[in-house]
């Protein structure tokens, strides 16, 4: 069954907006885990727009204490800056179960593309090895239609399908226009021996159809929509609704 990792970036956005401690990302993560979430995801950035290095350290302690997975996302090429030690250094400190490499720049509002694996494979190979040496599973952010053979050649364990285009097509009422590329890429990844995660702009509305079409997604990491929905319905109820969607999409034995 697809595992749910809740991304708590947006709790930190709200907290940082007033410069204090609340809302507390650790308390929010605990509430999500209490509701049954399988793990927690964060995406700290050098500009500290939301999740900061100290949040990562605190969440690493919480997830380790509960023996659940911690997934840290980031651009492995981004240099240290203002309290951000760099992704590799942060993972060396916190030893997350999984690191998801994302080719984000500070100028981006949010993550909006995967790697160009043919072009970046040689640069990724030593980085993947370095994260493996820390005991991390390595997932690479990938567009539907990405060069899966080049992704596999990097030595990574999984890809994470960037599902922004899926959400956009779904919201515009034309999901069938986006789905074939996702189905093909997921199939290619599994045939290459890669696991398949998915994330970005997934929501209660668009998750079920994607999981049903792709089958066998290892993990979805969901933040923006989930936290927004929780503003109306609470974290416990909202997380349980996502879990019900992943359970409903699980293959019947
Ligand atoms: C990689 C990805 O799609 C998300 O995990 C990312 O964390 C979104 O970043 P923001 O929460 O800053 O939009
Ligand atoms: N990797 C995707 C993620 O962690 C959360 O993305 P979003 O749900 O905030 O768009």
Summarize the structure in words.
Catalyzes the complicated ring closure reaction between the two acyclic compounds 1-deoxy-D-xylulose-5-phosphate (DXP) and 3-amino-2-oxopropyl phosphate (1-amino-acetone-3-phosphate or AAP) to form pyridoxine 5'-phosphate (PNP) and inorganic phosphate. Keywords: Cytoplasm, Pyridoxine biosynthesis, Transferase. The chain has 253 residues and is α/β, with parallel strands linked by helices. It has one domain: Alpha-Beta Barrel (TIM Barrel). α4 links the parallel β3 and β4. The relative contact order is 0.14. Bound molecules: 1-deoxy-D-xylulose-5-phosphate (DXP) and ligand LD2JLWAY. The site of 1-deoxy-D-xylulose-5-phosphate has 13 residues, from loops. The site of ligand LD2JLWAY has 13 residues, from β8 and α10.
Please give the structural blueprint.
Elements: E1 3-7, H1 9-16, H2 25-34, E2 39-42, H3 53-66, E3 69-74, H4 87-94, E4 98-101, H5 117-133, E5 137-142, H6 148-153, E6 158-162, H7 164-171, H8 175-191, E7 195-199, H9 207-214, E8 219-222, H10 224-233, H11 235-249
Parallel strand pairs: 1-2, 1-8, 2-3, 3-4, 4-5, 5-6, 6-7, 7-8
Helix pairs in contact: 2-3, 7-8, 9-11, 10-11
């Amino acid at each position: 069954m697809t595992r749910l990792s809740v991304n708590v970036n947006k709790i930190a956005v709200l907290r940082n907006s007033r410069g204090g401690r609340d809302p507390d990302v650790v308390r929010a993560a605990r509430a999500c885990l209490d509701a049954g979430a399988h793990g927690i995801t964060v995406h700290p950035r050098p500009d500290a727009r939301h999740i900061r290095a100290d949040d990562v350290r605190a969440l690493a302690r919480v997830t380790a204490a509960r023996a659940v997975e911690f997934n840290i996302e980031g651009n492995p090429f981004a240099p240290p800056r203002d309290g951000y030690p760099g992704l590799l250094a942060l993972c060396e400190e916190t030893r997350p179960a999984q690191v998801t490499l994302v080719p984000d720049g500070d100028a981006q509002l949010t993550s909006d593309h995967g790697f160009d694996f043919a072009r970046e494979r040689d640069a990724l190979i030593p980085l993947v090895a370095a994260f493996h040496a820390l005991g991390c599973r390595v997932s690479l952010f990938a567009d539907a239609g990405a060069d899966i053979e080049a992704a596999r050649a990097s030595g990574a364990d999984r890809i994470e399908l960037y599902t922004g285009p899926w959400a956009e097509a779904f919201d515009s009422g034309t999901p069938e226009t986006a789905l074939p590329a996702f189905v093909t890429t997921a199939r290619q990844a599994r045939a290459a021996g890669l696991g398949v995660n998915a994330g970005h702009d997934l929501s209660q509305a668009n998750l079920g159809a994607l999981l049903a079409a792709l089958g066998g997604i290892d993990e979805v990491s969901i933040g923006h929509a989930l936290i927004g929905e929780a503003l109306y319905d609470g974290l416990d109820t909202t997380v349980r609704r996502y879990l019900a969607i992943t359970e409903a999409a699980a293959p019947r034995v």
